[in-house]
């Protein structure tokens, strides 16, 4: 597997873990913070165990799309009350969601869409 793909998995796992921990501290531990931490763990483990590569890639891609949706909703919530305002914790979460989505783009770029297309090249 390409080194850039492995690095992007590690960086996305770090971004997911930081964002999930900040979210758990701000909003309390919930289902999505636990799912996010599980995906971060899956991404890190897939670096060492190649059998977890494809589940980790797809989980990273899905969580990246969910991060984009959450970022859009967070930006929309910032406009409540007629003026745009973010608290400090919301700014940190928005930054984390942005990085989660950004690193998932790398997973879309560096990993082929299926295991069969990797064997053909």
From TrEMBL:
Keyword annotations of the record: Membrane, Transmembrane, Transmembrane helix
Keyword Membrane: yes
Protein name, entry field: Uncharacterized protein
TM annotation in the entry: 34-52, 64-86, 92-111
